[in-house]
Amino acid sequence: MANFNIKVNGKVRQVEADPATPILWVLRDHLDLPGTKYGCGVAQCGACTVHLNGNAVRSCQLPVSAVANQEITTIEGLSAKGDHPVQKAWLEHDVAQCGYCQAGQIMSAVSLLKNKPKPTDEDINAFMSGNICRCGTYTRIKAAILDAAKS
Amino acid sequence: MENIKKSINRRSFLKASALAGGGLLLNFSWLASAKAAYTIGNNLNAEPTWTEITGYIKITPDNIIKILNPNPEFGQNVMTSLPMMVAEELEADWQKIEVEMGPHDNVKLGPQFTGGSNSVRMYWKPLREAGATARQMLMEAAAQTWKVPIEEVTTKGGILFHQKSGKTGTYGSFASKAAALPIPKEVKLKEPQHFNVVRSARKNVEGLKIVTGKPLFGLDYKQEGMLIAMIVHPPAFGMKLKSFDAAETLKMPGIKAIFSQKLYEDGFEQGGFDTRTFNDMLVVVGKTTWEVMQARKKLNVQWEPAGDTKDTFGGRGQKREVTVPGELESTDAMFKKMQEYAAKPAQQLRKDGDPETAFKNAAQIIERTYNAPFLAHNCMEPMNFFAHVTEEKALVAGPLQAPGWSEPTLAKLLNLPGDKIEIQMTRMGGGFGRRAYGHYLYEAALISKKVNAPVKLVYTREDDMTYGIYRPMYTATYRAALDANKNLIGFHVKGGGIPEHAIHANRFPAGAVDNYLAEGWQIPSNITIGAFRAPRSNFNAAAEQSFLDELAEAMGKDPIDFRLALLKRAKENPVGKDNDYNADRYAGILTLVKEKSGWGKPENKKYNRGVAAYFCHNSYAAHVVDMVMKDGQPYVERVFSAVDCGIVVNPDAAKNMVEGAVVDGIGNAFYGGLTHKNGKPEQSNFHQYRMIRMNETPKKIEVHFVQNDIDPTGLGEPPFPPVFGAVANALFKSTGKRFYNQPFAPDLNKKEGKQI
User: Fold this and answer.
1) Which domains does chain B have, with CATH numbers?
2) Chain B residues touching residue A138 (CB < 8 angstroms)
């Protein structure tokens, strides 16, 4: 066990945890930020996607000991009122079915658009194929990303 | 407690009462059967004859209208569509309505069962009646206050109007008065042409919470002092716990307790949905999820073969024992065993005409066998449940499709009366049938009782995928007898599976062929199975619809025209009895998909097209799948879907459901499969169990609904099964080969000699 100061959604938080603890579980169990989801624990499904210095990472593979002095953003910190253009596009397209994977999908999509503001179909396929949606909402996810890219 | 006894000549009873602080609360109770006197009182829970359905509406004096959604939400959007049905008849302003998930209360809120594509169907009438009754009472209250005839009172958007006098008032301002009025005996429901909430697209009421990551799901549920528990289950079906040594593990940080416990004691009478795979729970309890995950890896555990075991089932006054074989099964051996069973005589399920003679006299017999593997549900949110059990009561909360089925078992396991058990249903991160089986709820409750603390039981993805309760392993052999003119004179299906067969003997093409035989057989197994999106249909539609495609080809007919001709026969001169489909509606979706897909049109020649249609869960669905080759692999680029599920309550959400079913179907058809070696599942996470992803998803899925005014039927399941058949038929057009074994990707692999 060790103490860590980590920066989440703009705030420095102190956490006492095993250094190997993935940020996923630090967020969920220690910091009461359950928006980041557990899906597989092996970086295969993308449900746990957060931003590390603005880039999408799988938080189930990122130990707490490796993120000192870096900015972590979770779905809870993406916007104050759920009005990030990507969130708005998600609502406009009524993307979600069960909704469990959507936080991870949104965090991936935001990161994609940061790197490619006008993504092609293939860009979206390449970047978003790390996120599984068991309900199969992929066509709406793609449409929402393309819409968000216009704003 | 007020008791009123009367003979029942009406189906419904409403209870109106004032809310604390003023306002109206309407309970709607609906009787399943009118066979006995009933009791009206303050404690409706005490009356066991209230079995079917209720809904309730709350209106406050400042006109806040709250509708409780009765059915658990697992992505089928009932949190939105069911309240829409209430709001339609209530004439409330949808934008201002608050929706809340109801508590588990089968007396007030009806069956509360999510499954079988039944939610909208079973609540369609009662919830509209609930809305209409509340509106009628509010109108009566306004009419009395304004001293005008009720016929002159109108409503719109939660406001009451009297046009002549110019008087208006909110529902809220009349709610208390309305609550004191007698309940109207009958209310008139709107004709479909007057719907203005139902049939217009309404956004998911939890959309904002979903996109902002609010704690909606079972895994997000938290309470002060809550511990995390995990269960280490045997590595293989047919194994059980022999011994364990937890001395070192107990010293690990955060670990509170390690113990083994039985889920059901010997002879415990299970209900029909109390399926469990492993009865010995080896439980690790600790402070945080990560600590428990680490600790369980360090446990020193010995497992041993369980041998044959016995399950006892109760219910309906009939106790029966079932022997579960102890064999450590492997997929190859199971497949061989299925072939052996397929050659043996089987149980006759339906026979029309003289199929033996038809086959004897046939000029040509076509026979094909189709196979499909176990499938894991793989809900994105792994199984989990919260429980806090004390001597006096139990609170359990989590993702659950059928709370009413779980409560009696939980009561027996905890030795608590039903009214001391509170079940809260969280939003589910997928269900697909998996969460109709309450074992994980019982496990959580027993663990909480043992450690005397609030506990959340968490399955890891590996626990979830290797626990069982899969879609069964199926096979079916189809045979068709053709005469010298290539007319279909006989049809024979013989299906089997581990541990059940999939045959629906009264479904199409039964009723369309003079000589028809359906047979089934099954092999018992310790690999547990359960409902998986469109149970049995999800295999039948693949096999039967592929076979019909091959038949059409052999007969030189267009696959849609061939099916339409059979349906015409089934309509005009049906063979046999009990055909469970409507031939007109079945033909309707084929006609619609033919038109919308531009079937046979030259501009679509570049696509390898496959078609399939199926009836299940009271609805009809057809797809045309357009396949192309992309990077040397077959890729479904476009899909046209036609669905007849009667009135479509929430059209855009309904489209979403069909789109999802198409994607799910393509994914499972190509990649889905769980295999075993010596009882051990060979896939435990998504690096081994392939799921469809964005890059394999069609560019376009065009969904069309048949427009009619038939009461709504199912939608979550019906569009799923025919996708498998349409994909198989498109694959034939793409590769020139028929695909008989699911999943299809490995066979493509063999053909092309490379990894997929």
Assistant:
1) 12-211 (3.30.365.10), 218-313+383-458 (3.30.365.10), 543-752 (3.30.365.10)
2) 663, 692-694, 697
